[in-house]
Amino acid sequence: MNDFKTATEAAGIRYTHTFENRPKKEDYYRHNHSDYELYICFSGDMDFVVEDRMYELPPDSVLLIRPFTYHYASLHNFQKPYHRMSINFEKNTAFPETFSFLESEKEFFVWKQGDLLRMAEEAEAKMAEYGRNDSILYLKMFINEMLLGLKYAGKTFQKTHSLNPSVSQILRYVNDHLNEPLSLKKISSNLFLTPTYISQVFSKHMKIGVMDYVKQKKIHLAQDMIANGISPCAAARQLGFGEYSTFYRLFQKYLKEKPSAPLATRGREKEAPALPKH
């Protein structure tokens, strides 16, 4: 199979389907976002990190990644093909019957309900065939079909482990205090860990600096708050930013847009490019 990447974005949904015979190490950036993500691994020699949990991904495994959770793929062998699909969507994309499932703690599944790749390829073919509005509707149906399948998948796959006890402790503290001013010194004094140790252990296991993690989390939370009608100034204040100029600069750095953009685009759909055939 030749390398390919298909993608579309519309109605608050981002869909990407990628196959690489020789995956490139630099492609798998570490990030979080304000929407849900279905991450489907068809093949690849890899682990996947979600906050302080590392999962070994067998073929046809599915991760349900919830908003504001830091995550990344960690490939072991770049000589083996890497085939995956990711679908980002807002909560209102899901049918009411799946709302409670989205809020559950389950996040890792091995698909046992038929040929997952064939199911995905059939959905992709339909989206390429249909007109814009119908393809968006079909994509929403596909997402809900996936969610319902996961809801009744039974026991989740358990082969996982925590990255490091100190990292888990740091993450819990940070995520419980995102509405406050946070600094490395403050985290250190409250956890009784030295700043040097916190910086080293966090960077080693999370592949990101602790304060960079804090800033990204706060900015993505602010993006969601603004999209839901809170003013940028109020969002900055509620998330512990002492200076609006600092908030403004970080918002542009991480999201490549002004803080007013999520509010201005609320309720508007982006044009959906047609899915290319491969």
**Whole-number radius of gyration?**
20 Å
According to CATH, what is the topology of the largest domain? Jelly Rolls
Distance between the ends: 10 Å
Q: Largest sheet, if any?
A: 6 strands, antiparallel
Number of domains as seen in the coordinates: 2
Overall pLDDT confidence: 85
Strand portion: 15-25%
- Placed side by side, the strands forming the largest sheet appear as 1-2-8-3-6-9
DSSP E strands, number: 10
Helix content: 40-55%
Task: Tell me the structural class.
Answer: alpha+beta
CATH superfamily (homologous) name of the largest domain: Regulatory protein AraC
Count of DSSP-assigned helices: 10
Secondary-structure element pattern, one letter each? EEEEEEEEHEHHEHHHHHHH
Instruction: Return the CATH class of the largest domain.
Output: Mainly Beta
CATH architecture of the largest domain: Sandwich
Keywords: DNA-binding
GO molecular function: DNA-binding transcription factor activity; sequence-specific DNA binding
InterPro entries: AraC-bd, HTH-like, HTH_AraC, RmlC-like_jellyroll
Pfam families: AraC_binding, HTH_18
Q: Your description of this structure?
A:
This protein folds into two domains: 4-160, Regulatory protein AraC (Jelly Rolls), CATH 2.60.120; 165-264, Homeodomain-like (Arc Repressor Mutant, subunit A, Orthogonal Bundle). It is built from ten helices and ten strands. The chain has helices at 96-102, 116-129, 132-151, 165-176, 184-191, 195-206, 210-227, 232-238, 244-255, 261-264; strands spanning 4-10, 13-20, 36-43, 46-50, 53-56, 61-65, 71-75, 82-89, 108-110, 160-162. The strands form two sheets. It has a six-stranded antiparallel β-sheet with strand order 1-2-8-3-6-9, covered by helices on one side. A four-stranded antiparallel β-sheet has the order 7-4-5-10, with no helix packed on it. The relative contact order is 0.15. The model is unreliable at 266-278 (pLDDT under 50).
